[in-house]
Each structure stands twice: as C-alpha cells, then as structure tokens.
Amino acid sequence: MKIRVLVCCDESIMSAALRALLDQQPDIEVMGFTTGRESAAAVAELAPHVMIVVAPALGFEDKGELAELAALTKIILIAKAESAHRSVEALCIGVRAVLAPDSSADDLIHVLRTVSAGATMVMPAAARRTLERLPQQGVSRSSARMAAELTPRESEVMLLLAQGKSNAEVAEKLSVSMATVRSHVHHVLRKLGVGTRAQAVAIAYESGLMAAIGRTAEFRGQEG
C-alpha cells in the first residue's frame, strides 16, 4: 500500500520541487497540495497518512493550527528554527518531525517513510543539531529523579530515541525483539508522563534529563 501524502505549501517553486521528488518514489502517492487556511479541511477530506507542512504556510507560531492537524494525521514540519526551543514546542504539540529547510531530499524521504510506519523520527542528524544546541542545563532534582526511575536499558532506549532511531533500529542496536523495544518505549513514555516519542525526547532535552541520564549511567558504572 502506498503512503498517501498531502503537502501544505504556499510557495509554487517549493511545491513543484516536492512534487518532482515525491512522484519519483514508487511507494508514495501525492494526494494534493493545500495552503495553511485550507489544511484541516483537506486532511479531513483526503485522509493522508502523512502531511508535509512547509513554512511559511504554517510555522512555529501557528501552534493551534499545527496541534489541530497533528490530531488528524502525522505532521512533518519543514521550517527554519529561530531557536531550539521552538522546535521543542512543535514536538510537544504533536508534530512528528521537524526538518530544517536545507535538509537533504534523502533525509525527507527517510523521515516520511519512518513516520508513516508509526515510529516517530524526531530529527535526522543534520536537523537534530537544533535540539543539540540547547543550552546545557544543570541536572535538576526532578530530572535526576526521572533518570533514576529509568532502568539502564530504558536509559539506552531513551538515548536511541533522541537519535531518531526507529523501533527496528533500536531492536538491532540492542539485540532485542521488536516486542521488547515497544515495551521499553511504553515504559519510558509512562514514566515521563507523555504520549509520544517526540514529546519524550523534547522533554528530555529541555528539562536536562539527557544530562541526568548520562550522569546516572556514569554512577551505575562506578557502582559496578
């Protein structure tokens, strides 16, 4: 079954480029193009698997519209982040992936396929620098507590999620089954009190949890 894709874009040149790229993929079907104002109605009518949203049709400032669309389908947002915090906010309201406008065509297609398969790709390496440029925050009591509540294996899974790994990639990396990975991801989301992998990663970076995981791992290693 082909991946049904709807594109929200106001710029004709970008729309033509995306059409040319997506039409070359044998497993992708472009449902059509829409603008920011018409997006919700188009999603309701066409029921795409994934929607690619290109700023400025909708951008980081359009939180209400993005959250509405994210409740209807899987959203990949292509936008220039003025700050890392804005990328984190987009992930927290349900956007599945945030890509920089200069991301490669290969990155976009890989993210699209991964998101469609159900595994949230937060950002590929080139675009993930946005999150990695977040100020290094101290390990707060709350983040240290969250890190301590994660088992060593759950901490490994959290780090791999932060790298944008799919369930299959996590399973291969840790030499475990897909069912085991799904169980670990479920436990991580529950312990962090979030509903999606993207939200987990966003909170982990923003709260200092990633640093806390690193320190907890070092402490456990010293104990061993």
UniProtKB/TrEMBL annotation:
Q: List the Gene Ontology MF annotations in alphabetical order.
A: DNA binding
Which Pfam families does the record cross-reference, listed alphabetically?
Answer: GerE
Span of domain HTH luxR-type: 143-208
Q: What InterPro entries does the annotation carry? A: CheY-like_superfamily (IPR011006), Sig_transdc_resp-reg_C-effctor (IPR016032), Sig_transdc_resp-reg_receiver (IPR001789), Tscrpt_reg_LuxR_C (IPR000792), WalR-like (IPR039420)
What keywords is this UniProt entry annotated with? DNA-binding, Transcription, Transcription regulation
Task: Describe the location of the Response regulatory domain by residue ranges.
Answer: 4-116
Kinase: is it a keyword of this entry?
A: no
Chain coiled-coil ranges: none
One GO BP: regulation of DNA-templated transcription
Query: Any idea what this protein is called?
Result: DNA-binding NarL/FixJ family response regulator
Supply the source organism for this entry. Answer: Streptomyces spectabilis
